[in-house]
Amino acid sequence: MNLAAAQDERVVNHRAWEKGLSSIPDAVEPRNVILAETTVRKIVDSAYRNVGAEFGLLTELAAVTGARVSQLARLEIQDVQSDRADPRLMMPSSRKGRGIKKVLRRPVPIPSNLAVRLLRAAGGRPGNAPLLTKPSGDPWKRSDHTRLFARAVADINESASPPTIYALRHSNIVRQLLGGVPVRVVAVNHDTSVAMLERTYSRYIGDHSDNLSRRAMLDLDVAPSAANVVSIPRRVDRA
Q1: What is the C-alpha separation between 48 and 52, in angstroms, rounded?
Q2: How far apart are CA 37 and CA 11, in angstroms?
Q3: How far apart are CA 141 and CA 227, in angstroms?
Q4: Other C-beta atoms within 10 Å of 117: how many?
Q5: Is 74 helix (H, G, I), strand (E, B) or coil?
Q6: Which of 5, 58, 211, 235 shows the smallest number of beta carbons within 10 Å?
Q7: Which of 125, 167, 123, 124 is nearest to 145 (CA)?
Q8: Contact 177/183 with Cβ under 8 angstroms?
Q9: Alpha-carbon dihedral sign for residues 104, 197, 110, 45
């Protein structure tokens, strides 16, 4: 509905659904599905096996970077920086929000083996060609992934309410927070704001900040001084 309002001047200033939802408890709370790492691995494996190499690569990159599919679809081959000890992608920013947005690129770390496979999949195409393509060679478009991801998730059959590909983003954000990555860095890595992370992942930020605070915690469990120690005579049993 927000997308429709942004595209249609007739409704952009009304937002009637926001007023309607405000009367329903927790109606604006997002359904953030956080997947265990073992489940993420199974989904990526299923995407490769049951859908195909091209979709498997898209799914793996979504799991590793936590980027939106719209960002991944705009990656170019030249965005892969593999000629360094710490390979990374120059991830394009999203175009979310109103108006024309300037697309910036920020470095996001990726594993060395993934960087190698990305360049191998590029197949000698020009640097400005799309990095990720469908089997037809065409770039991924909006919602192309929906049914394919549902097929990959259906194969592992672990949930009565199957997650969408966005769960990979949620899971990656939480993994970084609980791994001790500063909230500001997590926000930059995922093209979002600290305020949005605090609103959406406050529970996990609390766990993260607790762990950080504990490292600097003052422990006043002082050992008793020698002056207060009373020697207890040793008992000798006589035969």
Answers
A1: 5
A2: 41
A3: 77
A4: 16
A5: coil
A6: 235
A7: 167
A8: yes
A9: negative
Residue with tokens 């979310």: 96
C-alpha–C-alpha distance, residues 165 and 85, integer Å = 30
6 falls in which pLDDT band (50, 70, 90)? low
In sign, the C-alpha dihedral spanning 73, 109, 128, 117 is negative
Is 0.70 surpassed by the pTM of this model? yes
**pLDDT category of residue 173 using cuts at 50, 70 and 90:** very high
Each domain of the chain, given as residue ranges in start order, spans: 35-160
Q: Which residues are CB-contacts of 238 (< 8 A; sequence separation ≥ 6)?
A: none
CA dist., res. 222 & res. 64, Å (int): 45
DSSP secondary structure of 128-161: TSBSSB-TTSPBP-TTTTHHHHHHHHHHH---SS
Q: Token digits for 215?
A: 């490292």
In whole angstroms, give the CA distance from residue 161 to residue 8: 33
Q: Which CATH superfamily is domain 35-160 in?
A: Intergrase catalytic core (1.10.443.10)
| Mean pLDDT, residues 149-163 taken together | 82
Q: Are 54 and 137 in contact (CB under 8 A)?
A: no
CA distance 71 to 7: 20
Lateral strand order in the sheet of 80-81: 80-81, 88-92, 105-109
